[in-house]
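Quick start: read one record
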Amino acid sequence: MDSLRLYAMVVAGGAVAVGAYALLRGKAKTPEVLERERRDWLDGIGRITDGTVIDVQEMPAENSPREAVLLIYKYDVAGVSYECSQDVTYLRQWINLHSCRLGLPTSVKYDPQNPGNSLVVSESWMGLRQ
């Protein structure tokens, strides 16, 4: 009887070890990767509405020699006004920041389930109008 209990404890301990390894082995995703995945997801499911660029701001980044560039815009969905910003630091090759001015009309892709989740520029879609 004792050998069966010992065997069960060894098997249970092994299962716990394998489960812990499976949970901890995955690499944590960087904020840049998470943002790219969010843009790809919104690009696929997003609905389009009209918006307006409010401002473009360059802000010093904490852990980077490059300044972070934020595109600030507003739009309306179902009678609710949203004011959002998108970090376009890594999308500079797709947009001309000098042509982004106050009041520039734009198209905004947003999540129909969460309209505050939106974007103006992604790798495969451009909402800015020239």
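The chain has two helices and five strands.
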